[in-house]
Structures are given as C-alpha cells and as structure tokens.
Write a structure and sequence with these properties.
homodimer, about 240 residues, mainly alpha, three-stranded antiparallel β-sheet, DNA-binding
Chain lengths: ~240, ~240
DNA sequence: GGGCGCAAACTGCGATCGCAGATCAACGAT
DNA sequence: ATCGTTGATCTGCGATCGCAGTTTGCGCCC
C-alpha cells in the first residue's frame, strides 16, 4: 500500500493520469479480456486487484461493475466476481450480432478508408501473419483483435466501434479458451488476406464477405470448445 | 417519490431491495432518459440526486458513471455532468445502427413471437394509439418506447435487446427535444399499424420494413430540431 | 485419525470524509 | 455605477471504514 505509487504506476515515462483511475483500470481489464489474458470462469476480486495495482478498492470496483453490467463479468451466487462463462445460446446470439455489425463496419470502412488507415492495417496484418506462421497463440490472439479493430476504426464511426468492441469483450475469453491451433489460424488467415485486399480495393461487398466468413468459421471452433471451462473447478488447494 | 426509506421504496409488498441500490438508480434514470423525462444538456449532479433519493452519493455516482460511459451523459470541461447533446454526425450514426439492429430484431421477432407476446404488443399498441389520438406528448413518447421494446423483446435475444436499448438511451432526450406534433404522430402511427399487422402475420420482411420506415421518417424530424437544445444556454441569472 | 464447528478472512455494497479544480456571489476599490 | 478580486460552495474522484453474507481453514471433540 505504498502511497507514492498511487498517482503513477511504474510505467516509466508516463506523465500523469490522463484519465480517471477507474477509466485506466477499465481499459486495462478491457484489453486483457479482448486479447485473451483472461479465461472464462476466472475469479476476480476487487480488493485483490486493487492491491496489485496499488490503489484503493474504489476505482477497481467501479471499473469491474461496469464490465459486469456490460456482460463481460458475472456475479456468482456467492457474490464472487468472475469472467462470464457463455452458454451456447449466448454465443450464437453474439455471433449473429457480430456478423451484422462487423459486416456493416466493414462495408463502411471500405468506403471511408484513407491511405494512412490502410498503412496501419497493413502493418497489423503483417504482425498477424507472423504470429500465425509461428503458431504463437497469445501473440496471434492479440494481433487478431488489433487487426479487426484497425479495419473497423477506418469506418470512422466511433459508436459502432464501441458496440463491436463490447461484443469482443464478451467473446474474448471464450476465444482464448478454444486455443486456436495451426489449422484454425491457416484458414482464418485466408479470410484475413481477403479482407486486406478488399479494403485496399475499396470493395465493400468483398470486405463484408471476408469478415463474415472469418467470424462464422471461427465461431464453429469456438462454440465446440465452449463447454470446457477449465478454470471453474478448483478441486483442492488450487 | 420521496425516498424516505432508503432500503425499501414505497413499492408496497416489495420484500427487499431486489437489486443493488446503484442498479435501481441506474434503471430509474435509464427509463427516464428513454421515455423522454430528460432534455439534452440538462445538468445532473451526483449529490443533488442522492439527496432527492435519500441515499448517499456513492450509488448515484456509480449509476451516472455507467450512463456516462454508455454515452447517455457527458462530462463538461468544468466537471459538470449533463445529458449528452448529440451532433448531427452522432445522430446519423445512431440512426444507421438502429436501422440495422432494430430491423434485425424485427425480423427475428416475427419468427419467434408467441401468442402471449402478441397480446402484450397489442395492448401496448392500443395505448400508443390512444396517446397519439389525444396528442399527449409525454404519454406518446413513453408508449412509443414501450411498443418498440415489446416487439424487440419478442425476439428473445437479450443481448440484442440491451444493445438497442442503449441506442434508445442516447436518442431519447433528442426525441423529447423534437416534441412530435400531430402530423408526426399520424405518419408514425401508420408504420406502427403496419408493424403490428406484420408481427401478427409473422411477416419478417414486412416487420423490418415497417420498423425501418418508422425510424427513418422520425429521424428526419428529430435531426432537424437537433441543433436547438433549449436547456444549454443560460445567458444570465437563469 | 477423521469428521464437525465456529471463528477468522474473505466477498460486494453503501456511507462518510477529504481533495483538487471550477464556478459563482458578494464585497471592495476606483 | 462598474470592474476586479477573493472566499464560500459547488463539482467529480479517491480513500477509508463498516456492514451483512459467504467461504474457508484451523482446532477441537469423538
């Protein structure tokens, strides 16, 4: 509980708190959920995280409350907070909405994309390709999220982006749980390549098709391994 | 609605607080925003609302923080909290997403609707018709929100419903600000009648068309009066 | 040695206090 | 009478404390 590290975590040259503490914590956990740092069923505690971050329980609490309200976390019957475990019905609904919204964002991105945007997406695609070739799971998951995010950001519709990110927030841990193998990454990279080409060609329908294909094929693998949350049972002295 | 009893509002036989205080406050303000009880630019204060409700500032704060994060409220430069004032660009984006998601919900509602659902929607439609005929603005706005909500609820997709409700949350005050007149209500009721018939006939395409027509025609009137927030400017001495 | 029980240590939630920054009102000077 | 300045009071945000309920783990009893 060092009071000196409250205002500035050990981030080196970080100047000051640009946002409120709860917002920084929210963003941190948000990114962790999207990029696969958390597993379904994993228990989180307000005070525990507060102690890790060197802050009081209050901002952590508000951040986790928001994530709970957004469906990323859930409160168990014993008032414990954990990463939400999706049912197949939950997952199918999320996938259907993702197809709709991400397809919409892709169409608009193809119309609105600028050259700087395109360069950024190309860079993200290169990183994703590298991660896929090396079958580096963690790196692949983070790069995959960043690649999709880069495309949707080019659509220049902040609300649509935030709604898509909210969906990723919920499926992130499930994706992590399905631990994509080489086969999965290879087929998915086919869609990613198509998506990049369609974006560069300003081909709205093509970009939508590539995105929808990516989502729906990936969903099959994720859904199959949905009922295997390896974090929930803690038999003894975990 | 005096909050003389903190733990138990005057809900009669309500046993205890079914939800947390912050959730109750969130729901309360949420409904107020959707059904048009708040105007764009209207200032809200944590401590003020806490005093009105007879609770401490804490649960109010968390509720309003969530609404701010969801884009319903905004923090001014002077750290004052107010109902968000939409720009035309904001509004166009919201409308486009609404067309997409509410059309999707309508299609699925037409496929999933049960007889009890249909009865409920019929009742809501009757109430809406009454309010429109009497040109009772407040009643019409609340009934309109309830009618749409009833249809989307029949789709049996809770996440989709919550995302639609989040959009209504943001446009609610703007709709209120446009004070629909008799002409607006009359044309809108045409689409509402079509929607009810399509739902009863399980006509997915027809229901989507009615919903999209309703949204897009209403959007024209709302957008036109968007730049007239009568609450923002306070020239001198209130 | 094995099963039971109670207390300590967790959990989230609400209340209260204090801080830094901004607004506003009232007072004093010109 | 008008302008400038200052203090009281507002704002949101974080820390700390306390409450009620649940889980857990150590010690006691059989």
């Amino acid at each position: 509980m060092q009071g000196d590290s409250v205002t500035g975590p050990a981030t080196g040259a970080a100047p000051l708190k640009r946002d409120s503490l709860q917002q920084q914590i929210y963003d941190r956990v948000f990114d962790g959920l999207v990029s696969g740092s958390y597993l379904p069923g994993q228990v989180l505690s307000t005070r525990g995280m507060a102690q890790e971050l060197g802050v009081s329980a209050m901002p952590v609490r508000e951040a986790l409350t928001r994530l709970t309200a957004e469906g990323a976390l859930e409160l168990t019957s014993s008032r414990t907070l954990r990463v939400r475990v999706l049912t197949p019905e939950d997952f199918d609904e999320i996938t259907a909405i993702r197809v709709n919204l991400e397809g919409m964002a892709g169409e608009r991105a193809a119309q609105q994309v600028t050259e700087p945007d395109l360069d950024r997406v190309r860079t993200l695609h290169a990183e994703l390709t590298t991660a896929a070739q090396g079958v580096e799971t963690d790196r692949y998951l983070a790069a995959n999220a960043a690649f999709h995010d880069g495309i949707y950001r080019a659509a220049q519709w902040p609300l649509l982006l935030s709604m898509i990110r909210r969906l990723w927030l919920t499926v992130g841990p499930a994706i992590r749980n399905s631990v994509p193998d080489h086969q999965h990454m290879a087929t998915s990279m086919g869609y990613h390549d198509d998506a990049l080409q369609a974006l560069a060609a300003r081909n709205a329908a093509g970009l939508r098709a590539a995105i929808v294909g990516d989502i729906e094929t990936a969903a099959q693998g994720i859904r199959a391994r949905l009922a295997e949350p390896p974090e929930t049972p803690r038999p003894r002295t975990g």
